[in-house]
Amino acid sequence: MNAAILPGASAGQPDFLLAVEALTVSFDGFKAVNDVSFYVDPDEIRVIIGPNGAGKTTVLDLICGRTRATSGSIKYKGSELTKLSESAIVQAGVGRKFQTPSIYDDLSVFENLEISYPRGRSVWGALTFKRDAAVRDRIHEVAEMIFLKDHLSKRAEFLSHGQKQWLEIGMLLIQDPELLMLDEPVAGMSVAERKKTAELLHQIIKGRSVLVIEHDMKFVEDIAHRVTVLHQGKVLSEGSMERVKNDPKVVDVYLGH
Amino acid sequence: MTSPSPRTDNPFMTPTEWAYLAVLCALIFVLLPLALDGFRLNLVGKYLTYAFVALGLAICWGYCGILSLGQGVFFGLGGYCMAMYLKLEASSVENTRIQSTPGIPDFMDWNQVTALPWFWTPFKSLPLTLIAVVLVPTLFAFVVGAAMFKRRVGGTYFAIITQAIAAILTILIVGQQGYTGGINGITDLRTLHGWDIRTDSAKTLLYFVNGGLLVACVLAAQFVKRSKLGRILVAMRDKEDRVRFSGYGVASFKIFAFCLAAAFAAVGGAMFTLQVGFMSPSFVGIVPSIEMVIYAAIGGRLSLFGAIYGTLLVNWAKTTFSESFPELWLFGLGALFIAVVLAFPDGLAGLWRRHVAPLLTRRAKAPMPQRAATLPKGAPAE
Question: What DSSP element (H or E) covers B332?
Answer without folding.
Answer: helix B329-342
